[in-house]
Every structure is written in structure tokens, then in C-alpha cells.
Write a structure and sequence with these properties.
By secondary structure, the protein is α+β, with helices and mostly antiparallel strands. It contains 3 helices and 6 strands. A 4-stranded antiparallel β-sheet has the order 2-1-3-4. Keywords: Membrane, Transmembrane, Transmembrane helix.
């Protein structure tokens, strides 16, 4: 116990001496520089980068009935361009876990399949 107090006293004396004080000031200044640099530089991805990245969804084209999984950017509106016929008529769909048929996506938390009437939650449906 006495040794800990003695070590703490030695550390205080060293920090108040010439080199100890300069090292402590240098560490604090370095922390301030890092904090200021991270504020101006930013720490993560741009909102624009996030919006242009996409989500993988199942789409069905209303023109040619083609079904595919496509990567759709978050900032793009539906309907999107069909990968087969290239018409802008592909809509976001969900697959019923019971009858396996596709139906249009909505933002509802609970679904009722228009084909078989099965009821399920959003986390149970195929995106």
C-alpha cells in the first residue's frame, strides 16, 4: 500500500518536471488534433454512398412476367428496369412461405397472401 503511494508521488513529481510535463502536454495535444481531424474528415461513409448502395430484392416484371433477384439502390423508386426486357415495369415482390407464389410488396408488418390466404409476419416472407 505504501509502495503505491510512493509510486504515485514519483509519477506526480515526474509529470511536474521538465520532460514529464512536455510529454503530458504532447499527449493531450495529439488527442485534440485527432479529435479535430475526425470531426472535419468524418468517420463513416457518406449518406450518398449509402443511398447508392443497394438491397437485394425479388422483382417481377408486369410486362414480361420475368422474376429475378436484383440489387436496387435505396434511392431508386419502384417500378425498376426489368433485367430481361429492359422496360421500367419490375415491381418489388414477396414470396408466400406457404404456397410459394409472388405478390406485391407493401410496408405492412403482417401479410395475408392474396392467393392462398395464409397470414404471416414480414420477417417470415422472402424479400
Amino acid at each position: 500500500m505504501f509502495e503505491d503511494n510512493e509510486r504515485l508521488q514519483n509519477l506526480r513529481e515526474w509529470l511536474n518536471s521538465g520532460w514529464g510535463m512536455w510529454i503530458a502536454v504532447g499527449v493531450v495535444a495529439l488527442c485534440v488534433v485527432i479529435a479535430v481531424a475526425s470531426m472535419f474528415r468524418g468517420g463513416g461513409s457518406d449518406a450518398g454512398d449509402l443511398a447508392s448502395s443497394g438491397r437485394l430484392v425479388t422483382v417481377q416484371c408486369k410486362a414480361c412476367q420475368h422474376v429475378d433477384r436484383v440489387d436496387v439502390p435505396y434511392d431508386e423508386k419502384f417500378p425498376v428496369k426489368c433485367p430481361k426486357c429492359r422496360k421500367r415495369e419490375a415491381v418489388w415482390t414477396r414470396r408466400c412461405p406457404k404456397c410459394e407464389k409472388l405478390f406485391p410488396h407493401s410496408t405492412a408488418k403482417e401479410y395475408s397472401c392474396p392467393h392462398c390466404g395464409a397470414e404471416f409476419r414480414t420477417d417470415e416472407a422472402d424479400f
